Amino acid sequence: MLKELFANQLALGCGQAAVVTLLALTVMLLARQRNIHLERDTIVALVRGIVQITAVGSILVLLLRGPAWTSIFLLTGMILAAAGMSAGRSKGMPKSFQVSLYAIGAGAGSVIALMTWAGVIDTRITSLVPIGSMLIANAMNTNSLVMNRFRSEVESHAGLIETGLALGAESKQTVVPYVQISVQASLIPAIDSLRSLGIVWIPGLMAGMLLSGARPIYAAIYQFVTISMIFSSSGLTALICSLLIRSAAFSAAEQLTLRPLPVPVRAVGRSV
Amino acid sequence: MTIEVRKGEVLVIVGPSGAGKSSFLRLLNRLDEPTGGMVWLEGVDYQQIPPRELRRRIGMVTQTAYLFPGTIADNLRFGPLQQGSELPAKTIEELLTQVGLAGRAEEDIAHLSGGEAQRVSAARALANTPEVLLLDEPTSALDAEATGEVEKLILTVVRQNALTGVMVSHDLAQAARVADRVMVMSKGKLEKIGTANEVINAEGALR
């Protein structure tokens, strides 16, 4: 229907963006009816998403014509932004930005560097930046999941953790079960992606490769390569994050510093 | 506030909700960090004692027992294991006899009543051979019968093990039954301190 309404590709893109925005807003309103308030997050995410991807898309057109070394700056910028966003998702978590930066940087950064060195990722900027960004974005999601799950586990087991401390246990030992749960839970999406590859979903990258003339079997194998890299960088990020948050949750005197956030009070009724 | 807790005595801290009783207790084993002032243990500034060693020497029994999943014996072994030592079965049995749970070492903690859980919690703290025992409203979640039993138990273990006890309670009558001295706190400050008789009159009201 849209294709008949819009003559050029840019107008068609705008039309498609408007339709999916309406769809997202409808979901948000349905959630609101159930008293689940996603309004602010959804609207901010939609506006940021379209502005960011359009801006980056425009810049990328210029940058992708540049020398390969510029990809290092692009990927570093992405890691910094990912750390900032992940930290923002983990309010109340001490040292959340440092933890996120080190975990995503070491997790995704090392996989990108190693795989580029091994020749799995092409050094051309047009290949390195998109694949690197996928690894960073997934590492960011995993990092947020680890931190959020760890925080909620520690908050719900604070009594048991402090009992361990009061009995002379090493602070890091008192949270071992919650670290394990957090890492396992955070890797469910990455493992499921790998497991369901080709059956439940076919990544967009494969369609792109086919369109650009790659052999179908190579395009298929490369999807496995990409998703495996995502799993490895996410797993590494989760492990590094789990090591760092264990320390971040306690003070130097082995006191639990990760405390429940105050619950916001929503006014009920109306003023007269 | 400046107070001294004498070796072997039971000091009970009373005061209204929000007076800072539990916060004060948590400062004593450094679960919270004081923003000012000093705490001395046996004449040593407690900041000079490594936190894990300090907490081994100052045991704590909380309002909720917070038992670790497993058996009663597993819970008793926990503290000594942190110091790298295995608690002998004989010692476990002696501790359980002391708290009235003889012969139940291998019982799963899931089957315990509130009073029994609190007894295990006390035995677990004692397994670390502390010098001081902090008790944060240990009977507030128990019924009247269990409260009486746990009170009796506290006095017995403190006396038998020559411990110094610091207990938080919201119940003046309990303070009168248990305390050598009573300390009254209000809004984070020391109101008065003295023997139970000096602080509480015959009707159970504050003097």
Protein model, in words:
The complex is a heterodimer of chains A (272) and B (207). Chain A has twelve helices and no strands. In chain A, helix 5 packs antiparallel against helix 12 and helix 9 runs antiparallel to helix 12. The C terminus of chain A is likely disordered. Chain B contains eight helices and eight strands. Chain B has a six-stranded mixed β-sheet, with helices on both faces. Chain B has a two-stranded antiparallel ribbon with strand order 2-3. In chain B, strand 5, helix 6 and strand 6 form a beta-alpha-beta unit. In chain B, helix 3 runs parallel beside helix 5 and helix 5 runs parallel beside helix 6. Chain B is globular, with a radius of gyration of 17 Å. Classes of the chains: A mainly alpha (272), B alpha/beta (207). The interface between A and B is medium-sized, with 17 and 23 residues.
Total helices of chain A: the number is 12
Query: Which regions of chain A contain 5 or more consecutive residues with pLDDT less than 50?
Result: 265-272
Task: Give helix and strand order of chain A, one letter per element, not per position.
Answer: HHHHHHHHHHHH
Biggest interface reads: A-B, 17 and 23 residues
Which structural category fits the helices and strands of chain B?
alpha/beta
Sheet with most strands of chain A = none
Main beta-sheet strand count, sense and barrel state of chain B? 6 strands, mixed
User: How is the quaternary structure best described?
Assistant: heterodimer
Characterize the overall form of chain A.
globular
If you average the pLDDT of chain B, what whole number results? 89
H/E element order of chain B: EHEEHEHHHEHEHEEH
State the strand order across the main sheet of chain B: 4-5-6-1-7-8
- Count of DSSP-assigned helices of chain B: 8
Structural class of chain A: mainly alpha
